[in-house]
Amino acid sequence: MSTDCLFCKISQGDIPAKLVYEDESVVAFRDINPQAPQHFLLIPRKHIRTTLDLSEEDAALIGHIYLVAGKIATQFDFADEGFRVVNNCNEGGGQVVWHLHFHLLGGRQMGWPPG
Ligand code: 5GP
Ligand code: ZN
């Protein structure tokens, strides 16, 4: 937990968000500025700054987040048509919130390469 971290505050319920999933280690909620008809953020409750701050002990946690992504896509009925899971790491990767998160995007055709 980082006291000045937006996503830690969302995970603790101190800042409101449209939660769609939570368990003991993971929280998922709708992105405030959606880039697709379906746009969710999946975060670990544990404060991890970036992908580069992950350690071996977090491997199961990240695997769990991917399983949750698939469940949410199924729940909101865009799994079969297709979706994208994205992690932006550091400034050059487009990261602006410094708590590890995975974007789950769906509900439209995705372009490639991403911008
Ligand atoms: P990044 O660019 O760091 O990968 O993505 C950060 C994401 O967090 C952005 O898509 C942005 O719209 C989202 N975001 C920023 N502040 C808030 C907030 O207060 N609530 C929610 N639900 N999403 C936020
Ligand atoms: Zn945090």
Describe the 3D structure:
The chain is α+β, with helices and mostly antiparallel strands and 115 residues long. The chain has one domain: HIT-like (HIT family, subunit A, 2-Layer Sandwich), CATH 3.30.428. 24% of the residues lie in helices and 22% in strands. The chain is built from three helices and five strands, in the order H-E-E-E-H-E-H-E. The chain has a five-stranded antiparallel sheet, covered by helices on one side. Strand 1 and strand 2 form a beta hairpin. It is globular, with a radius of gyration of 14 Å. It starts with 5 loop residues before the first helix and ends in a 9-residue tail after the last strand. 22% of the residues are buried. The mean pLDDT is 97. The structure holds guanosine-5'-monophosphate and zinc ion (ZN). The site of zinc ion has 6 residues, from helix 1. Guanosine-5'-monophosphate binds next to strand 2.
